[in-house]
Amino acid sequence: MAGLMAGFGHYTHAIVRGIPASLATEALRTSQAEVDLDKARGEHDAYVQVLRTRLGLEVVELPADEALPDCVFVEDAAVVCGDTALITRPGAESRRGETEAMKEALKDLKMNIVEITDENATLDGGDVLFTGREFFVGLSKRTNQRGAEILADAFKDYAVSTVPVLEGLHLKSFCSMGGPGLIVIGSSDHAQKALKVFEKLKDHMLIPVSNLEKVKLDGALTCCSVLINKKKPDN
Ligand code: GLY
Q1: Is the CB of 28 under 6 A from ligand 1?
Q2: Which of 163, 167, 202, 223 is the most buried (most CB within 10 A)?
Q3: How far apart are CA 211 and CA 83, in angstroms?
Q4: What are the average pLDDT values for consecutive 10-residue runs of the chain, which has 235 residues?
């Protein structure tokens, strides 16, 4: 198995995207809960502020697109690892157009771009968990085996295992990285247990960020940014 990737967990840039008015009525969702657009925008602004001012990231803000109701959930449009960015092919047809602006932003950041062009492949970034040593890819309603194979081709230095996602939208709907070597598995029932795990970490810092509106659209906090660790100077 590969060792822990140098710089794992450290980021310099984040790509985020604005919320279109169409999010409230047309974004994909599994719940029937009503979405308050102003609240969603307020929460998103606060989230972006945390990335910029508390975490010190250089934030690239892409404009919202009314024709792409789910476009705020940028995580699904690209998988970035080191200097390579894999532009995905989202499982939901209504979301395929989201990758264009993401690709341009990643090109501007001088990332090496790999694109999924195989029409039999689907991959949402929300199904990709990178531990710093290996990838886990959720096989879900949005991501298929061919998508996982293309990811393995794009990131040849790392082992890739697939995980069936039998409930929920994405793999990262119920798990995420808590730090190097720590995968946090959660669900509403186990959220408090996950919190206890974080409390045991040395030097931990909890920054509360509200996400009440976007969760109604199956959007978690990781859905709303693509994080990048850029070492090379721009030229
Ligand atoms: N609303 C996020 C998604 O369904 O893809």
Answers
A1: yes
A2: 223
A3: 30
A4: 82 98 96 94 97 96 98 98 97 98 98 98 96 92 97 96 84 82 60 50 66 87 86 64
Residue 59: which H helix or E strand, with range? strand 58-62
Question: Which is it for the CA torsion 62, 66, 72, 77, positive or negative?
Answer: negative
Give yes or no for residue 27 CB within 6 A of ligand 1. Answer: yes
pTM for this one? 0.89
HSE, side-chain direction, 13 A CA sphere, residue 160? 18
- Ligand 1 center to 208 CA (angstroms): 23
Contact (Cβ atoms closer than 8 angstroms) between residue 150 and residue 123? yes
41: three-class secondary structure by DSSP: helix
Could you say which of 71, 81, 170, 175 is catalytic? Answer: 170
Closest CA to 48 of 218, 178, 217, 209: 209
Position 18, amino acid: G
Does ligand 1 come within 6 angstroms of the Cβ of 219? yes
Name all domains of the chain by residue range, CATH numbers in brackets: 2-228 (3.75.10.10)
Asked about 71 being catalytic, the answer comes back as no
Q: Mutation test of ligand 1: which of 98, 217, 223 has the most ligand atoms closer than 8 Å to its C-beta?
A: 217
